Amino acid sequence: MRFAFFFLLLFAAKITAQNTLYFPPVVGNTWAGTPPAELGFCPERVDSLYQFLAENNTKSFILLQDGKIVLEKYFGTFTRDSFWYWASAGKSLTAFLVGQAQEEGLLDIHAPTSTYLGAGWTACPPDKELLITPWHHLTMTSGLEDVTLDDNCTDPACLQYKADAGARWAYYNAPYRLLHDVIEAAAGQTINLFTKTRVFDPTGMKGLWIDHVMYGRARDMARFGLLALANGVWNGDTLLHDPQYFFDMTHPSQDLNKSYGYLWWLNGQTTFMLPDVPFVFPGKLIPNAPDDLFAALGKNDQKIHVVPSKGWVVVRQGEAAGGPNGNLVPVVFDNQMWARLNMLVCNPTAVQETAHKPAITIQPNPAGEAWTISATAPIERLELYNSAGQPAVIRAGLSDYAHRIEAADLPTGVYFLKIWSGGSLQVHSLLRQD
User: Are 162 and 122 within 8 A, CB to CB?
Assistant: First the structure.
């Protein structure tokens, strides 16, 4: 059963990669591009975007479409080979590494963190410390006191009890940093060696963890964004086999902050929370961006935006857009940037309309009763498979833009939906839960 589950994921991912995604060679600087004009981008609007980025302290900017470079711009003295810090955008890379460590059997995200760090890694009462697991580190729900003089301090004396694990959401660096210690203890390797062998070598990425912060080039961030766009598969090489973990990582992980997965930020949710602000805000994290966007976000506007419906990866490095002392997760700039990204297309062509796959929206996901599948082109065929690779629903001869698939009578678990629309095939993972 589990072999069939993995085989179906690999098959689905390979369909997506082979039909829609380009992957740059692992060695060298070759990276294929798509001329902006082929996507209907107006030169003057591209220039306006670049001016906006320059005025907001940007050092590098990349836009990928299905893996190919559409826009790449460096500002000031910054070049393609310049290294810069990812800040908290590196958290999302750590989440990917934790998933790899778990599937290798090195750790269990639901086991007590003390399994890997030893008892007394906090100043909490022993019974409260035992409640904390790597899952709580990934979801920012450790319950540790986050109002501290140094939120990077991982000494036990700095890690005080605030609430039971899972009872509150608070963006706190120290528990995140300890995930590197968990990986090192579980794997018997440094975090840099683990990252190099599991992600960097297979993808051609370069970078270095320095004091738990990743440093790398803009193209390294773009490669990681492309890996995430491809659901953890790099040019047919599956680096993260566990589809349930990848789904949980890039979907709401808890109800306290619906716009947070496993160290990834999520758009399109009904509410969101932000670092250092103990309030729940109504609406989407980035209103101008597509609902299916998930993002690695870091202080001073380091960012990787991944948009499956558009096949886009957007990377930005630089100083804080709003000036010095930028916020930990400054989404205001993200929203302003997307207002300009949405305006790039000024003259859609017939070639553009047929060459790029239609946007697919699936709501809700996870679902209890039913999924509604909507597309920007008529849906021609739907095939739903369970985790064993067995067909659950087959619908052919369709022509409408939206269809409903009943889920109430299906067993809980992960499913894969193949969607034929607009002359292209897309594969999406769905979750059926009670």
Answer: no
For residue 383, the cross-strand partners are: 394, 418
CB 171 within 8 A of CB 331: no
- CA nearest to 85, candidates 77, 93, 76: 93
State the SS3 of 287-352. Answer: CCCCCCCEEEEECCCEEEEEECCCCEEEEEEECCCCCCCCCCCCHHHHHHHHHHHCCCECCCCHHH
Can you tell me the distance from the alpha carbon of 139 to that of 119, in angstroms, rounded to the nearest whole number?
Answer: 21
| Structure-token pair, residue 191 | 């975090």
Q: What's at 73, amino acid-wise?
A: K
Which amino acid type is present at position 156? Answer: P
Tens digit of pLDDT at every position of the chain (434 positions):
444 444 444 444 444 443 479 999 999 999 999 999 999 999 999 999 999 999 999 999 999 999 999 999 999 999 999 999 999 999 999 999 999 999 999 999 999 999 999 999 999 999 999 999 999 999 999 999 999 999 999 999 999 999 999 999 999 999 999 999 999 999 999 999 999 999 999 999 999 999 999 999 999 999 999 999 999 999 999 999 999 999 999 999 999 999 999 999 999 999 999 998 888 999 999 999 999 999 999 999 999 999 999 999 999 999 998 765 555 666 889 999 999 999 998 855 433 443 456 788 898 988 899 999 998 888 988 888 876 567 888 887 788 888 999 999 999 887 878 888 877 778 787 888 88
